[in-house]
Amino acid sequence: MSCKPNVLVLFYGYGSIVELAKEIAKGVEEENGEVRIRRVRETLPAEMQSRLPLDKVKEIPEATLDDMKWADGYIMGSPTRFGNMAGGLKTFLDQTILLWKDNVMYGKPVGFFTEASTIHGGHETTILTMSTYAYHFGMIIVPLGYKIPEISQTVSGGGPYGATHLGSKEELDENERTIAKFLGKRVTEVARKIKCCQA
Predict the structure, then answer these.
(1) Could you tell me which of 122, 120, 31 has the C-alpha nearest to residue 75?
(2) Pairing between β-strand 109-116 and β-strand 34-39 as defined by DSSP bridges
(3) Going by DSSP bridges, is the β-strand pair 163-166/6-11 parallel, antiparallel, or unpaired?
(4) Were both Cys, which of 15, 21, 28, 113 would link to 163 (CB 3.0–4.6 Å)?
């Protein structure tokens, strides 16, 4: 068994969440992990979908349960929806009950990312509500702490819970990019240690 970990970056959304996912994937690659970026299928009604920038993610494959089986570690993201993950991600995760029964993800590391328009608009609560999923699967939640100085910045997204984007700014700033890459590296590092111990 190779000790090179497979890391799945799984997300819902179309805005800066996509850019966060790509920066996280760069961090996985810099830590010598194999990465897949996957989006979940849109579940909103057709009349609402017509208002979404679907072109922004059309080149990114939709996630499957096989992607979940493939991964040694996961990094999951969603824009905040009233302090919680978006329904599209929740719908996909609900399907993983088929994997829960077989302990497919038990003991595997997971990190989280999100974006919210305001400082107090759900950065922390969205990550915390996504993390409840991981408890039920027996996954290892990988927080960031304050290991890198960018996490202490108060004018950007990102914090000890995970990578985030402060959506009042259209583009990710350099702190947010650095934090996103660090999340990718951190989950990959933990996934490698676990995988190598089991080899």
Answers:
(1) 31
(2) unpaired
(3) unpaired
(4) 113
What residues have CB less than 8 Å from 28, skipping those under 6 apart?
7, 9, 34, 35, 75, 184, 185, 187, 188
How many Å apart are CA 142 and CA 25, to the nearest integer? 16
Please state, in angstroms and rounded to a whole number, the distance separating the CA atoms of residues 106 and 126.
22
Q: What is the tens place of the pLDDT at every residue in 99-118? A: 999 999 999 999 999 999 88
Q: Measuring CA to CA, how many Å separate 110 from each of 48, 65, 149?
A: 31, 16, 22
pLDDT at 199: 64
Q: What is the DSSP string of 54-89?
A: GGGGTTSPBP-HHHHHH-SEEEEEEE-BTTB--HHH
Domain annotation for the chain: domains and CATH numbers: 6-198 (3.40.50.360)
Cα(176)–Cα(142) distance, rounded to whole angstroms?
Answer: 18
pLDDT at position 162: 96
> Which stretches in the chain have pLDDT values below 70?
1, 45, 49-50, 53, 154, 199
